[in-house]
Amino acid sequence: MRERLLAAEKVKSIDWRDGRLYLLDQRKLPLQTLWHAYESAAAVAEAIRDMVVRGAPAIGISAAYGVVLGARARLAAGEDWRAALEQDFALLAASRPTAVNLFWALNRMRDRLDRLGQGEDPLRVLEREAIAIHDSDREANLTMAQFGVELIRKHNHNAQQLLTHCNTGALATGGFGTALGVIRAAQLDGLVECVHVDETRPWLQGSRLTAWELAGEGVPVSLNVDAAAAHLMKTRAITWVIVGADRITANGDVANKIGTYQLAVTAMHHGVRFMVVAPSSTIDMSLESGDDIPIEERAGGELLEVGGQRIAADIAAFNPVFDVTPADLIDAIVTEKGVVERPTAEKMAELMNRKRLH
Amino acid sequence: MRERLLAAEKVKSIDWRDGRLYLLDQRKLPLQTLWHAYESAAAVAEAIRDMVVRGAPAIGISAAYGVVLGARARLAAGEDWRAALEQDFALLAASRPTAVNLFWALNRMRDRLDRLGQGEDPLRVLEREAIAIHDSDREANLTMAQFGVELIRKHNHNAQQLLTHCNTGALATGGFGTALGVIRAAQLDGLVECVHVDETRPWLQGSRLTAWELAGEGVPVSLNVDAAAAHLMKTRAITWVIVGADRITANGDVANKIGTYQLAVTAMHHGVRFMVVAPSSTIDMSLESGDDIPIEERAGGELLEVGGQRIAADIAAFNPVFDVTPADLIDAIVTEKGVVERPTAEKMAELMNRKRLH
Fold first, then answer.
1. What domains appear along chain B, each with residue ranges and CATH number?
2. In this structure, how many other beta carbons lie within 10 angstroms of the beta carbon of residue A104?
3. Catalytic annotation present for B314
4. Which of A165, A224, A232 to mutate to test the interface with B (most CBs of B within 10 A)?
5. So what's the ipTM on this one?
6. pTM above the 0.90 mark?
7. Which chain B positions have a beta carbon within 8 Å of A316's beta carbon?
8. What is the pLDDT of residues A297-352, one digit of tens each?
9. Sequence-separated (6 or more) residues with CB below 8 Å from residue A20
10. Do the Cβ atoms of A280 and A349 come closer than 8 Å?
11. Contact A89, A106 (CB under 8 A)
12. pLDDT, tens digit, 9 for 90 and up, residues B12-45
């Protein structure tokens, strides 16, 4: 499976080359393929805030490279570069609030810096750490894809109708996806009849990114409005909803793209299984439950315009871009460390305490 | 209340004047206020199909005027005008499949024609009948608004957080609305803290029409993506979801705009009350249950473009524009004939059998 997955890889969205970070502008896809080059931490923070790059793991990876760019400038400026670098850490940390992978990656970079050995080149060390974060996310994608497919196979032996929300593919990660990685692996394993994709308003990550990624690889895909998901569950024999996550708390609650909670409630109503796929960098054991997760609210204007074109009157809009799905609506959380079925605080603690090589 | 409601009336979308039908182009609102004049049944059928006019009651009223226009042309052409008019009936009936008000209005026009008295002018009789359909819808709006507010008041005494989907206002009816009529009356009665409006993809009737209608009248309104409804129910203490209907079957099942079913499932999960408001012309006692309702599927392209602007790759899209909410998820169906709480086949039959003056 690993080799087949790697062979199927087509899209990437983050590239570190010649000391520069290149990001594929996800706001322009699929109509335009536009890469931007970044040379400063501030510019990377802005790219995260403005959603040039999005997806919890991709944000974390980009922020790690942002630290490298910041360190290079601070080192060149001399003086107390280490203290000055904290400004870049703060700027990157303030770019978006919900996905914990961002803070996880920044903490990992800071920790590495704190463990800097005598004679080690800080820039080289940081660059190696950022690349390691990137590589390990890719590896995690591969492992999760295999765990996820095993989970589907445990319940289903023929091709299934799956449903997914937002984008959790190559564009959202350092590899080829979390939820979409599982779906890709399921397709390679003959377990996919059709992938139903929620368009995912307001940013349309489903129609612009997910449906485009899947169709480009020949995976049977059918797009629908977000509000049609329950109707699909009732009429199309969907067996699994498979989504990613932006933050998972110690009790197994999951923050993910707005609409995920609604999917979980309707999946439970229809007896459809609900799988969350996320690397362990998404798990925040410092928060007891989903009630503690800061939910980003973006400008209401994102609902009133599409592609810069006004579509509605000038009215007040409430635009929370994530919601929280309580653990008791989730059948399984799939991570690279293992699978937690019917998540509870005890099972999450066990997962995160396991001694593992990776 | 009746007088206050009439005084608050601001918007209308259907006008019969000087033997012509004028329709406000709802595809262009709120950015553009554009009226079209119609002089043939075929043109009215096209306007219904292309959604110049939409909303179950408004479609029925427009079709009735379409019959008048058809009859005028057939009478002028001489020969067997009555037989020829059946072509117009067929054309109008084929314009959209789900809202039963269309067929109800056409049947009422045909029935009146069948009862044509000696010496009666058929054109004059048909025009009077169409105007009567229009007027009675307006009256039904007023009655339903009062019933709906009484129902809210039975459970709640102070200002509430309400949620609605699609557009059921002045633009969707001959008067000032079904669900939105109840909401307007509730506002006049001090029962509205805020109306949360689902944007209602793909046509955005919520953001383009409902939020615009409400904001224009000073009703506190907050727009949200459809996928945020469950999150709102969990975090904003919504007490009522209030929606319209396109067809209600003999057992109390309700076909309405895609997403309504999802709202009903999530409302039940959160203990939020669910009210359907529709005139009795929406009730189709000939169908046993919602399984029998033809669900219109429109072109997938409606998901891939916004305002003629491409937003997604060229992928397959499934675009059912209605769904069915089973009776057991509905707290009350409000009609001008009375209110049916916890609808069942028995209660629906009782409602429709009542001897009433209107």
1. 2-135 (1.20.120.420), 144-352 (3.40.50.10470)
2. 23
3. no
4. A224
5. 0.95
6. yes
7. 221-223
8. 999 999 998 777 788 888 999 999 999 999 999 999 999 999 999 999 999 999 99
9. A37, A38, A39
10. no
11. yes
12. 999 999 999 999 999 999 999 999 999 999 999 9
